[in-house]
Design goal:
Length: 275
DNA sequence: TGCCAGGCTTCAC
DNA sequence: GTGAAGCATGGC
């Protein structure tokens, strides 16, 4: 067990913001996280304290980085100008949200699955994939399934993947798994590419367009300039910003604000009449 | 029951 | 180059 105080961190907001699909409520203020081939339970305590059910070494070596706890998010939020009341409300509503440093492969497949689905449905698909083709692991007496490797998914036919309720996306996942498992696309080497090159290469994968690739940049490669535009953000841009969100005003962290806007919009946030 | 969901691909034009 | 249709399935 490891107990520590963390500023500007909300488990619930981070878990429910739609950036990850295996961070689930575990009763009270606790959440379980399956990531990086590990299972973790985190509990929010009074006074900004958090209890991690892992050793101090694992916290320092794995989870501190995964939750991006060394980044000062207060700096991002305080940069929001008062002349943008909608964004100000979105940021206040999303306080404590952090952009997780997720595995690029898991992020890539998860967001291929996300197209034309809602969050509960995506979570179910991801869990189906893990239970069917992921490696069974034991975490201190609790069993869970790691996210399946590219090789494991490439070895399945699309029809077997479709058995996980992937629908027409089964072919996309299979084709992408083949490209990664064969080495045609090297997700590790792409960590050294600039944003434009990374986006370009990801868009060569089946089922990956600009939106999915942008999500992989933001959530899998921690490129905080990436700004995925989905149906919710598109709606906000159209109804609040007259066409396009001024992302150029927020160099280096527009993606953080995108996630706040997405979370706020999905939660029912709407523009005031004055906007 | 019907609409919609963190879109992408294909095919006219 | 651009716009529209088609796509599988589940949640609400």
């Amino acid at each position: 067990m490891y107990r520590t105080v963390i500023r500007d961190f909300s488990l619930r907001t981070t878990a429910e913001s739609g950036q990850c699909f295996r961070m689930l409520p575990a009763g009270g203020n606790a959440f379980t996280v399956a990531a990086m081939g590990r299972l973790l339970e985190v509990t929010g305590l009074p006074g900004g304290e958090f209890l991690f059910d892992c050793s101090p070494e694992e916290y320092e070596g794995v989870w501190r980085g995964y939750f991006d706890l060394d980044t000062d998010y207060g700096r991002f939020y305080s940069a929001v100008p008062p002349d943008d009341p909608f964004l100000s409300r979105a940021v206040a509503f999303s306080r404590g949200l952090r952009i997780l440093r997720q595995d690029p492969w898991e992020t890539l497949v998860s967001f291929i699955l996300s197209q034309r689905r809602n969050l509960p449905s995506i979570r179910r698909c991801v869990e189906n994939l893990c239970a069917s083709f992921g490696e069974r692991r034991d975490a201190g007496g609790r069993n869970f399934f790691a996210f399946p490797s590219p090789e494991a998914l490439a070895a399945q036919g699309p029809e077997r993947l479709a058995g996980c309720s992937l629908g027409y996306r089964a072919g996309y996942v299979h084709g992408t798994a083949l490209a990664v498992a064969s080495g045609r696309v090297d997700l590790g080497a792409l960590a050294g590419a600039d944003d434009a090159e990374l986006l370009r290469v990801l868009c060569t994968l089946p089922g990956v367009g600009v939106k999915v690739a942008s999500c992989v940049l933001l959530f899998g490669y921690h490129r905080l300039d990436a700004f995925p535009v989905d149906v919710w953000i598109s709606r906000v841009e159209r109804e609040v910003y007259g066409g396009a969100f001024p992302r150029e005003r927020y160099p280096g962290f527009a993606g953080v604000l995108q996630q706040c806007l997405f979370f706020y919009a999905r939660s029912g946030g709407s523009a005031p009449e004055a906007c």
